[in-house]
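Sequence of Cupin domain-containing protein (Ramlibacter aquaticus).
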Amino acid sequence: MSVNDRVINIDELALEHQKQGERFETRAARVGPRVGARDLGYSFDVVPPGKTACPFHSHRAEEEMFFIVRGTGLLRYGSQTRAIRAGDVICCPTGGPETAHQIVNDSDAPLEYLSVSTMMPAEICEYPDSGKIAAFGGGVRHIARPDQCLDYWDGESPPPAAQP
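Predicted 3D structure, token representation.
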């Protein structure tokens, strides 16, 4: 890749519209692949007023950072909330419910932010609002609730008998 392929302006991104129900909506672009990123994921989101891009969640393997480009909103982080605005840098390290996070546009104008995350081969996410746990990696994408958990030995049988 040339140096020109390593730079992209957010105003030139082709944003894809994503919507789920009445609460979740964004126009977003995955930037990392476009600039040749290998170990970090980059995304740019534009969230309309009154919406959020994703559920309240925490990561066990991947760390995330957000940079607020334009607008204002609300950061949910663990059991706390705080106002956020253009220029803010937000760190979301790995952990459990105490590091769960979500950016909400509680304003009357679009909220734009850049997210950067480590790209791990496997990830576990927890969703405190809905009680879900998700496992991602190696082609596996599994989302369940803890009460749907199987025992470690479920379905295992004894090894075949040795042949004389």
